[in-house]
Structure formats: C-alpha cells, structure tokens
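Quick start: read one record
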Amino acid sequence: MWRESGRKMFLLTNSLYDFTKVVMNYVYGPAWQDVFDIIIVGACKPAFLTDTNLPIYRVKGEDGSLANTEGPMFGEASSYLEEGKIFQGGHWKHLHNLLGVSSGSRILYVGDHMYSDILRSKRQLGWRTMLVIPELEHQINVMLQETGHFEKLEELRCLRDELDGWVYTLEQAAADIQRKQGGDTLTEEDELEEAWAEQKRIRATLREETRAYHMKFHPQWGQLFKTGYQNSRFALQVENYACLYSSRVSNFRHLSVEMNFRCMSDVMPHDRISENPVTRFLLRRGRDK
C-alpha cells in the first residue's frame, strides 16, 4: 500500500542481519525483503542518529558477509541500490542520501523505544515520529470499562472542592463575628467542625477511590499515562517527542496513505475556567452576596 503510493519504506534496526533475517522470516515470510527499499541492520541507535563518523557496510544477502562501501556519494541512489539494498551500520546522512531526502520532516519513523528511536530522531533530526506502545490497547479498554468509576471520581472531586470553599466561608464568617462582635461563635464553630469532619471524610474516600481506579490498570504501577491527576513522565515524553502513537504499526492498514494527521488543541488551566474550583467558589460567593 505504501510503496504503491510512491513512498519509500526502510527498516532500521540494531539487530544484526542473521537475527533480523530469522525474525522477519517468521513475522512476514521469505519475501520480507521485498517490503523495503532500504534495510539497515546493526545500526547502533541512538549513535546512528547523532554520530556522522560511523562507517557503513554493504551486507551480502546470500551469506551475510560484509563489504566496504561509502554510500551513494556520487550519482543517483537508485543505481547504487541496484547493487544491493541491505547495509550494516552507517549514520543518518547515509539514510537521507539513500532515500533522496534533504529534510528530516520528510521521514516518518516508527519505533518502540523512547530513547533509542523517538527522542533523538525527533529532537536532533526533525523526523516525524510514531511511537509503538503495546500497552495502549489495555489502557484504553480499562478506561472504557471503568467510565462509571471515573465519573464517580469526578463527582467526588467536585464535592471536595465545594467543601473546601464552604470551610473557607465558615472560617471567614467565624473570624468576622469574633472580630466585629467579640461575642459567642459556638454556632459557627459547631458548623465548622461538621464541615471539617465531612471534608476529611470526602478526602479519604477520594484517595481510596483514586487508588482503586488506578489499580484497575495495573496492580503495581496503575495507569501508564497518569501519576495521580497529572500526566506521567512517560506521557510527557510521548507528548513532546512522538508525533503519533499507537498500540501497533499494523494499525496503519486501516487508514488511507493520504490521510493528514492534525494535532489536537492544547488546553491550559485558564482554558477550562468553568471547571476550575477557584472559579466555582468565586461565582458562588458572588451569588451569595
């Protein structure tokens, strides 16, 4: 599908040829080399993406032996590749020359390792990147199954925020009465004690329910992409360095090769002002006045 559309396919792996051949024969079949225009084994990533002094060798497919080569320094890459398209080692400039591209943004690189595949290629070369995250399917399935549990957590968070605001209001009211009248504030103090007790109960319940929700994803690590309410370190890396991410590369077969992928709108706290607990508290105070 991709090659028929005029796009070039390449395989870039740190595995040496003998291991790559065994794996690809098992995964795809004896004709696996026909899928790719260029095959680079023993790439030594991430050095392949940073060190332009690494030598490149041509691999003879018959016996896996190596031959010295300098890459397509002169002439067309197509004529050079007619002599063989399997290589070992090299660096990103060799790959760019073989593909005939002058900009990293013309490459979409799919990998499953954040450091060796995604981070360096994106940050230093400007490649378009797709990170394969096998755990993603499980994360999504649990998230959909536990929609009711998540909604309960949202309700508890809203209730906690309302109680925080109510406690603050009672504290201010008791302080005002004490300051202005110097009189008895037992009624306010009793109500404040009840509010504190309810606040403590709701916070404990929220902690327990949040932990239970996270454990549904994994008994030890919880959600892969979350740490409490915030995105995990891994999730931040995915956002920063992966243009796309999916559970498996074969998901591409469901899409048109001409499909455009567009980023989603980033959201900051002030963009969700109606959901901010401080905003709700200030709006309530305005209504009370």
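Strands lie at 10-12, 38-41, 56-59, 66-68, 86-89, 108-111, 128-132, 226-227, 230-231, 244-246.
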